Amino acid sequence: MTQLSQKHLLGIKDITEKDIQLIFDTADTFKEVINRPIKKVPSLRDITIANVFFENSTRTRLSFELAEKRLSADVINFSASSSSVKKGETLLDTVNNILAMKVDMVVMRHASPGAPHFLSRHINANIINAGDGTHEHPTQALLDTYSIYQKYGNVAGLKVAIIGDILHSRVAISNIFALKKLGAEVMVCGPNTLLPRYIQSLGVKVELDVFKALQWCDVANVLRIQLERQQIKYFPSLREYSLYYGINLAMLQKLDKEITIMHPGPINRGVELSSDVADSNHAIILDQVENGVATRMAVLYLLASQKQ
Amino acid sequence: MSTLISSVKIIDKKSKHHLKVRNVLIAKGKIEYIGTDSPKASNLINGKGCILSQGLCDLQATYADPGLEHKEDLISGSEAAMAGGFTDVVLLPNTQPVIQKKNDIKYLTKGNAGSLVQIHPLGAISVDIKGEALTDMLDLSEAGAIAFSDGLTPLWNADLLLKSLQYIKKIDGLIINRPEDKWLALFGVINEGENSALLGMKGIPALAEELAVARDIDILAYTNGRLHLSNISTEGAVKLIKQAKKKGLNISCDVAAHQLVFDDSSVLSFDANYKVSPPFRTESDRKALIKGLQDGTIDAIVSSHQPHDQECKQLEFDLADFGIIGQQTVLSLLHNVAEVIGWEQIIDKLTYDAREIIGLPSIAIKEGEIANLMLFNPKEEWEYNLGSNKSKSQNSPLMGQTLVGKVKAVFNNNKQLIF
């Protein structure tokens, strides 16, 4: 198979295991490219990509922009702070205006779950979901599972614990889908108020004790506390959260095995991860960042080649 | 002018012609003749395969008039109602301004004398629907408020529900409440369940409704008043109301027609035309609602007609407004439900049972009576599209579909409309 089964990348839920494997294989090639002295290839020449960010983002936007530029695409950036969204324009109008300038692909981040799905019913360009509210963040899940794949050589059979604010995390949902499709066992762990009540229906184990989760897993993907997405109080204080759900080196040393620590960033140091963990050999956090560029190049390339 | 409907099946549980095929002559606003003969008439309708019943009564609709007339006004709303077979419509007070003064009531009812559709306004329970202070309920009642409700907004203030039930007892008045706990439902957009976990959307738990139903039942028992709970959506709520009825409390409830058809898997497409309040629940809830209709726990079916312009609906799901239109399509929507529970029961819940709750007289289909009637062909297919839609709004999940079951005519107030 050399083509993706979907026209858009709206979520991991919609793609197949074969799609994911194809993205991994393509990412392998691009990872080699970005480690060359000349990091650029002409694959997306004449393709115009709009990065449309209705929510703040630093690393995802930079990662996409870098991936696009390394593929020689023409790139335009649009962010809500400098846009007409504040003037009351609807999503559909904003995006149609951008598309009228002959854009081929849209990379969109939006605060509303399903916003890219809504858009896909109304426009023709390829859409890549760069995070839709608390729903999905497919490229993050691809880079996370790709990082696991790179470290372990496979994903099937591994035990992965996703720890933290599951309720407000698009990373969690996409990761669950990707990991399950690739054959990993998945556990979610966090304060009960931050776990969706029906999360078990996605085929995951639920654990409320973080140390037990660490004992169980091979890989711990530790999520950020999404204070900005919490509309009401879900736990008493950050102090208590860090005491009962924060991970420090002493905990990892008590385990009878080496586990891998991942984090999608940005880290709240001292809250979900202590610095002695974030900066330790357990962590592959910066590998994730590097793999982010390679997997996004793979996604962009595969979607664009489908169009041609 | 006289109209003869030939070979039509009559559905009216209190008529001696119930379930019989008859020729019915209507003249000067009255039923002149029912039988097997064919008296002369200026207008003939072939009623073969059709159902003739009382005009339907909708216990719950909003027309956005006054205030947001671009969504719906009294005229377009009435047209949607007639096309759906309704001759009586109860309007919620959630307009701008809120229906809370006697002039507001008069504004809504002033057209009734010359209209086929009769509008029956609900007066607000609380001033500006804020759930804080009672409106002048007795004055509103005298002006024509048929019952009292804060409409789409649940009464969050237990004391206000208690006081309103007590206060209105003087006139044996009816309080209508939408049971939902404000805090448990806060920021929710769909049913809390497997699909909310899947879509990452904040769910509204069934508990939010059931807790409110339980609270309302306790307050009703305490005050011994008359309470109607609108838009029931969960299995648990049906159970609680069934128990309350067994205890002999003066309680009734209704369900929106769309809740009998859709479940929460419909939101997987992120189409805001499936965003309603209460949200579509699980398949098990949907089945429990149908069972509740069958065993008499649920007294009435309502359209829960809620018009919204495209600017409020063609949006990201969480930003879109709650509510869909449905008055014109209630019977078509219930086509499949009718195969399970039969048209008789559905029509009962839209005529006799609905009118009884709000104290409107029901006129049986018999010779000499006023003609308040609806003619419906349950097998006829029709296209529901922007051309055939009577509402000013188009926020219906059925838009663009071929529907089965079409209203052919309505009669009331010495007027008739034949489609």
Structural notes for this entry:
The complex is a heterodimer of chains A (308) and B (419). Chain A has 308 residues and is an alpha/beta fold. Chain A folds into 2 domains: 12-137 and 289-304, Rossmann fold; 138-285, Rossmann fold (3-Layer(aba) Sandwich). Helix content of chain A is 39%, strand content 15%. Chain A has 11 helices and 9 strands. Chain A has helices at residues 17-34, 59-70, 91-99, 115-120, 138-152, 170-181, 210-216, 238-245, 249-254, 275-278, 285-307, and strands at residues 48-53, 74-79, 105-110, 126-132, 159-163, 185-189, 205-207, 219-222, 260-262. Chain A has a 5-stranded parallel beta sheet with strand order 7-6-5-8-9, sandwiched between helices. A 4-stranded parallel beta sheet of chain A has the order 2-1-3-4. In chain A, helix 5 (138-152) packs across helix 11. The radius of gyration of chain A is 19 Å and the shape is globular. Chain B is α/β, with parallel strands linked by helices. The model of chain B has no long low-confidence stretch (mean pLDDT 97). The longest helix of chain B has 18 residues, at 206-223. Chain B has helices spanning 74-83, 102-109, 137-143, 158-167, 182-185, 194-199, 206-223, 235-246, 283-294, 310-313, 330-333, 335-341, 343-350, 352-358, and strands at residues 2-10, 21-27, 30-35, 43-46, 51-54, 56-61, 86-91, 118-123, 147-149, 175-177, 190-191, 203-204, 227-229, 251-256, 300-302, 373-384, 401-412, 415-418. Chain B folds into 2 domains: 2-51 and 366-418, Urease, subunit C, domain 1 (Roll); 55-358, TIM Barrel, CATH 3.20.20.140. The two termini of chain B are 17 Å apart. In chain B, strand 13, helix 8 (235-246) and strand 14 (251-256) form a beta-alpha-beta unit. The relative contact order of chain B is 0.17. In chain B, helix 8 runs parallel beside helix 9. Classes of the chains: A alpha/beta (308), B alpha/beta (419). Chains A and B meet through helix 4 of A and helix 6 of B.
